[in-house]
Amino acid sequence: MKTKELSVGKVAARCGVKVSTLHFYEQKGLIHSLRNQGNQRRFTPDVLRRVSIIKAAQKMGVSLEEIKTAFTALPNNKTPNKNEWEQLSLLWHNALTQRIAALTRLRDSITGCIGCGCLSMDVCPLYNPDDKVGKNQSGPVFLEENS
Fold first, then answer.
1. For the domain 6-110, what is the CATH code?
2. Rounded to two decimals, what is the model's pTM?
């Protein structure tokens, strides 16, 4: 029995993304399509779950490169089942915890010094006398040290 194939427009509508997004995901190797006799893209229904995982992961702050790396653990462009999704999500858990901690530090210091070492503020909890930090590093040094 042949698996029902979906057009790119149908997948886009079902997943709530633009057709160009699906083309982009395919170009990046995150999803794959088949071609019919008229050379039109056709997707198997499992792509719906795969695109949903991509969208969920992106909302969590996971990069497309991280998603692609996680997907490579699945054989033959397979869509993860519940157990495999749990394993994929565990891969991202530690990175997300670190991002949350970094964002919390940024949120808590954004109205004052963000740790750049710039000497531009009259009162700075991370004061940088004689620009010692600037001699060796640039950017938000103190903030990055705590990431």
1. 1.10.1660.10
2. 0.66
